[in-house]
Specification:
Blueprint: H1 4-8, E1 28-34, E2 39-44, E3 48-53, H2 61-86, E4 88-89, H3 103-111, E5 115-118, H4 135-143, H5 151-161, E6 166-169, H6 176-187, E7 197-200, H7 204-217, E8 225-228, E9 233-238, E10 249-254, E11 266-267, E12 288-291, H8 293-301, E13 312-315, H9 318-323, H10 327-335, E14 342-347, H11 352-361, E15 366-370, E16 380-386, H12 390-400, E17 409-412, H13 416-427, E18 433-436, H14 442-454, E19 459-462, H15 464-467, E20 476-479, H16 486-493, E21 503-509, H17 514-524, E22 529-530
Parallel strand pairs: 6-14, 6-15, 7-12, 7-13, 8-12, 13-14, 16-21, 16-22, 17-19, 17-20, 18-19, 20-21
Antiparallel strand pairs: 1-2, 2-3, 4-5, 5-15, 8-11, 9-10
């Protein structure tokens, strides 16, 4: 329902619209509204319908406010009834085509009975070929060896294609990137050479990863894609051979010079004439734009990106974006979009900030939710060990690295000075280690992240905010400190066990951490194993553990 301001300035109509002044009455009864003709119908003393012209200043504002209140109540009531009718908790069976014991099969066993869809009446579709996608897009999907939809994809792609606002609660490694990219590439019109969809990412590294997947999926299409981050980058993607490439880790090289097209940002635009090197697509006019909130807001404020043709804005890891203090930027970005814009939010958790954005900007959204106990995935095996002193805490940490067969490790701490302390502790063991926190210079953070993603260092120690830039799969996550925010625990755990792989999370619990670990346990119904189980197949451990 339009606001009072919008009602007063409703769309212009012809002079033939009926108009009458409004008699003062304390016993008036509102019958209905007709925004197409800028009129409201009011019954005086319940039996005299009068047609009022909203465009004139003769309208009694009190009556208009009553009209808005009544109509808004009607709309809200109808939407609530509609949502209740469309609410479904699915029990999605493992697709017949899924190979027994495969990653996709195990994902359906885990999530198939816990997905709840609110506000949209649909049946799950596990086969990409049955989604009625563009043939060129389907070829790109098959080229990536994505044969079947993940459980989240089976219910979350269609609502977006159908033009609905969508909130999708989805953990890292469940196919959420493919979910929104497939829908976006399907709705983009190749004949319109202007920005039609925007994807917001909390970090430049994740933005680059999304860009690489988008390029792969659209390689048989004529869709142009750009990636804007705080720094200009070039990448040479390296496939890890898992999940058809979704977890590809791009090698990042930062640069400032212009490319052959005359721009310093990443894009897939090809020259119209290779010999002459000419481009007909204007700068910043790519059809799909991916980037970080701060960078995209600056481009919008300077009118570099035009929004007249934008149909959809998606936020990946929306909870992280909002936790990082980008709420104002996100609001400004949404406010710069056309009124009919569609919004899609993807988040591992349903935070207060997410609810605020949903309430203020989304129109009767479809909610795709998973039960709390499934936010932490089964393949993220959780271990716990108690530390009664600081010395014991340090001994527990260093002993972990005496076990054999441990790959890359991320260690999380709650404070910057603790990160520096742990880095020295690990370095003294002769293990390659770097750190990330807010007081480290941006260029150094980028170098440390790049080295870790390339595998040049074994251990990365970080705070929560800094660690969000690492969207990669590690063997072990260690919580040296337990976070007070349960959502942060989910994000930390999401650094391991991606897309069906098995990962380990070791939680070192001191006396100060008991309340936090208890809150996490009850929220997500996690069963913590004794840390000794971690070493069953990894060799011998020192006596202290």
């Amino acid at each position: 329902m339009a606001s009072l301001t919008k009602i007063k300035g409703a769309r212009k109509t012809t002079a033939s619209t009926s108009s009458k002044s409004v008699p003062k009455s304390t016993d008036s009864n509102i019958v209905g509204t007709d925004l197409k003709s800028d009129t409201v119908t009011v019954s005086i003393n319940r039996d005299e319908p009068i047609l009022l012209d909203i465009k004139t200043n003769k309208v009694d504002l009190e009556i208009v406010e009553q009209v808005e209140l009544v109509e808004k109540t009607k709309v809200n009531s109808y939407q609530k009834q509609k949502e209740n009718r469309a609410q479904k908790k699915f029990n999605i069976a493992v697709p017949e085509l899924a190979v027994a014991g495969s990653v996709i099969s195990e994902m359906y066993k885990k999530y198939g009975s816990t997905i709840n869809v609110v506000g949209y009446d649909c049946e799950p579709c596990s086969n990409f070929g049955l989604l009625d996608l563009k043939p060129e897009l389907l070829r790109g999907i098959h080229d990536k060896k994505w044969e079947l939809c993940s459980p989240i994809q089976s219910v979350a792609i269609k609502p977006l294609i159908d033009g609905r606002d969508v909130f999708c609660q989805s953990q890292t490694g469940t196919g959420k990137t493919g979910t929104f990219l497939i829908a976006i590439l399907e709705i983009i019109e190749e004949s319109i050479n202007n920005c039609q969809s925007i994807i917001l990412s909390p970090t430049r590294e994740l933005a680059i990863q999304i860009y690489e997947v988008a390029k792969d999926l659209s390689k048989h299409m004529g869709i142009t894609i750009a990636c804007h981050t705080g720094s200009s980058v070039q990448t040479k993607p390296v496939s890890d051979g898992v999940g058809g490439g979704e977890n590809r880790q791009p090698k990042i090289k930062f640069f400032n010079k212009l490319d052959d097209r005359g721009v310093s940002y990443m894009h897939n635009v090809k020259p119209d004439n290779n010999e002459l090197g000419t481009y007909s697509i204007p700068h910043y006019a790519e059809q799909l734009v991916i980037g970080t909130p701060g960078k995209l807001l600056r481009l919008l404020q300077t009118n570099m990106i035009q929004t007249s043709d934008v149909k959809l804005v998606a936020m990946d890891e929306a909870d992280k974006i909002l936790d990082q203090g980008f709420m104002d930027s996100v609001i400004q970005i949404f406010s710069a979009m056309p009124d009919e814009i569609k919004i899609a939010l993807y988040s591992a958790t349903l935070s207060h900030e997410i609810k605020t954005i949903s309430k203020e900007f989304m129109d009767n959204p479809v909610y795709v939710l998973v039960a709390n106990e499934n936010v932490i995935m089964d393949n993220q095996i959780q271990y716990v060990v108690k530390a009664t002193s600081q010395n014991l805490k340090d001994t527990i940490l260093t002993d972990i690295f005496k076990a054999s067969g441990i790959g890359q490790v991320m260690i999380f701490a709650n404070r910057k000075h603790t990160v520096d302390y742990i880095k020295k502790l690990i370095s003294d063991l002769g293990i390659s280690v770097e750190s990330l926190h807010g007081e480290i210079e941006s260029d150094d953070r980028n170098k440390n992240m790049t080295k870790f993603k390339k595998g040049d260092i074994k251990v990365l120690v970080c705070t929560d905010v800094a660690g969000r830039g690492i969207d990669t799969d590690v063997d072990v996550v260690i919580n040296y400190d337990i976070p007070s925010d349960t959502d942060q625990f989910v994000h930390r755990s999401g650094r391991t066990g991606r897309f069906g792989r098995t990962g380990s999370v070791i939680n070192i619990v001191s006396e100060d951490d008991k309340y936090n670990i208890s809150k996490i346990t009850s929220t997500y119904r996690i069963k913590f194993l004794p840390v000794a189980h971690f070493y069953d197949n990894r060799g011998t451990l020192s006596k202290v553990i």
